[in-house]
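User: Look at the shape:
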Amino acid sequence: MSKREDALNQFVRDALSQGTARTEIRQVLLQAGWTSKQVDAALDAYSDVEFSIPVPTPRQSISAQEAFLYLVLFTTLYLAAYALGKLSFSFIEQAFPDALYHTGDNTRSIRWSMSQLIVALPVFLFTTYRVRRLLAEDPTKAGSPTRKWLTYIALFIAVAFLIGDFATLIFGLLGGELTLRFILKVATVGVIAGAIFSYYLYDLKRDDRRL
């Protein structure tokens, strides 16, 4: 925390100690040039309860166990998404073979993708269940920095795939290469990346409502 943030927090603490209303403190700080985000963070550091001195709110923290769970959750998410996409591609190539693009025997690729999916998906679902239980027991954990960082990384990766997916679709359209096989592959990537993006964007909004 910087010296400026220390000064802001000390000012808010002193003002609350003197019985100054939160709305008045916020208005004065905004007029002084502080941003809404900085002011809200400083005010949120103290609970809105009646007491002789300002009462600090519990800090959002994360244990090593929770960090481990989040890392396992998002790692298995990526593995399961990749395996599902690869498996879908293999089935599409078998159903719609291209005489100009010989892929050979897809049996090994299908077997390997299914093996990854069989291992990664149950671990992902179990870890998701464990994380949900932790959040149900202590809703403040939803605001942990590690959780938010990993969630935003997942959103970034999903958006990157969606952008690449649409760019590939436009490239094929401009080149006159829109075969059914091509469209199905593009749709597969779009559905998987879109589902991940939609779910975790909803998850972030739900966390904000919970907090």
Q: What stands out?
A: The chain has a mean pLDDT of 83.
